[in-house]
Amino acid sequence: MTTEINLRRLEEISQNASRPDRGLMIDGWSVGLSPGLAKRSRCVNAFYPSARPFAVNLTETRAAFAKANLPCVFRVTPFVGDTTLDARLEALGYVKFDPTLVMVINLSHLQLAHLRPATATYKKQEDLSLAASWVADMRGDDARETAGLAERWRLSVVEVSASFAFDEAGVRVARSVAIREDDHVGIFDVGTVAASLNRGYASALLATQLIEARHSGARVAYLQVRADNPARRIYERFGFRDTYDYWYRALPADAH
């Protein structure tokens, strides 16, 4: 399957999906400075080889994060322009945390036989400001994180679609956000409220999104999941497979 998918392009698309509304470039380092829960939007992605000394770039980057009142966090992927970056950061005491897998499926291979009936109503929330507040509320975000999520969605140049599951009493019980660019669709913020876990709501909601994406011409779906997250097994049942991994590095006090 991976031979059919350009993983470098997939990484670019996943970056577009969580593009920070605040940030800057520092000598080949893309520095995201958006407040919010998602580290993807408030970290360094060192895409290109640098021309200046590493120490100069690190000093400027740390200053930019400090000015934004954010921790200095690096995201290390197979596509980092400087192959020595990870070792340099480790030598400076930046600890590795939150190892994450990028899982991908060619939607022509989508598997649905494992789904069980789930009595719920599935709806998109077209008002993205309201949708962001719903997602944030279900995640337990604070006001700053909620505002950051809403702003990123508002400024996004890709298609953001937030869907929710409601139980028979009309209570919002599950969420999932699909972000579409060209023939790729990313799945983000999948979750179920604690009182409604293990009832199939999130799986049914995800299936609805993937089927809709396939019918509308999407070829590839991807998602990012912590390596230790049991939800990996759920995604594997749909046909998602691991394609590459990444992790974050930060000083110990900021590694969360």
Explain what this protein looks like in three dimensions:
- This protein is of the alpha+beta class.
- It is built from seven helices and eleven strands.
- The protein has an eleven-stranded mixed β-sheet with strand order 1-2-3-4-11-5-10-9-8-7-6, sandwiched between helices.
- The longest helix has 15 residues, at 201-215.
- It is globular, with a radius of gyration of 19 Å.
- The mean pLDDT is 92.
Query: Span between N and C termini?
Result: 33 Å
Main β-sheet, spatial strand arrangement: 1-2-3-4-11-5-10-9-8-7-6
The computed structural class is alpha+beta
Which descriptor suits the 3D outline? globular
Main sheet attributes: strand count, strand direction, barrel closure: 11 strands, mixed
Number of helices: 7
How much β-strand is present in the residues? 25-35%
Number of strands: 11
Percent range of helical residues? 25-40%
**Element order, helices and strands?**
HEEEHEHEEHHEEEHEHE
Low-confidence segments, given as residue ranges, are: none
Mean pLDDT value = 92
- Radius of gyration from the CA trace? 19 Å
